[in-house]
Amino acid sequence: MSTSSPLIRALLVEDEYLARQEMRYLLKEAHPDVDIIGEAADADTARRLIRELRPDLLLLDISLPGETGFDLLESLDEVPHVVFVTAYDQYATRAFQVSALDYVLKPVHPERLAQALRRVRQTLLPPVLPPAAAAHPIEDDTAAGPPAPPAPPLTPQSQVFIKDGEACYFVRLADIDMFEAVGNYVRVYFGTQSPLHHKSLQQLEDKLPPDLFFRVNRQQILNLTTIERVHAYYKGGLLLEVRGGRRIDVSTRQAVRFKELLSL
């Protein structure tokens, strides 16, 4: 393969050393465009390396010590693309329910890995991806270096992971219509789905792209692209007709900011 070919920067998350070595061998032999930029044997190390290295792809074992691969994904503000690697068939169906790129059952067969990576390439390439962050991959026993730079802000194309009971989803922010506070959690509306997300509305508001989402009242954050009509409402507030037939109140306090934002 030409050295000018774009690389897929992958983080390998697997608690078994021999399994990591086997995956490295399979990738080196047949998939040199997949660059393993780091390895992690547990969720804490994976979380740190995801922050530091910003991989394009996670090759993720579901069964990890302490936390599962699903727990890891749920703890992230933004998740890379994911191919699950698992020894358990019962996780395979769930992997597709969460819209992962693919899953590979252990022991890993070269043909099945190649099939999964074809799907990865179709999703990630083009555009041309940035070169690997380092000449040598970071192992899971690497001592912590200087603090990682702050994560870049989320964008409409950022992907988030939502786990509600046994149901799990990967969703682009651009595809989310609304976040609504339900006690200490948030209900997330996208398509025909409305799972509960285990974060508060305030936590989300501080990280969502402000040019896409707006806090319309104490209970709801709305995707501005879903607005179809705006009406004057009670005591200086506004009433919004949005995609899907919903009607959303904009509080009197927020109506002032809303009008300024949209130059109304």
What does this protein look like?
- With 264 residues, the protein is α/β, with parallel strands linked by helices.
- The protein folds into 2 domains: 8-124, 3-Layer(aba) Sandwich (Rossmann fold); 173-262, Beta Barrel (OB fold (Dihydrolipoamide Acetyltransferase, E2P)), CATH 2.40.50.1020.
- The chain contains 7 helices and 15 strands.
Descriptors:
OB fold (Dihydrolipoamide Acetyltransferase, E2P); 2 domains; elongated; 28% strand; Rossmann fold; 7 helices; five-stranded parallel sheet; alpha/beta
Could you write a compact summary of the structure shown?
Residues 127-138 have low confidence and may be disordered. The protein is 27% helix and 28% strand. The chain is of the alpha/beta class and 264 residues long.
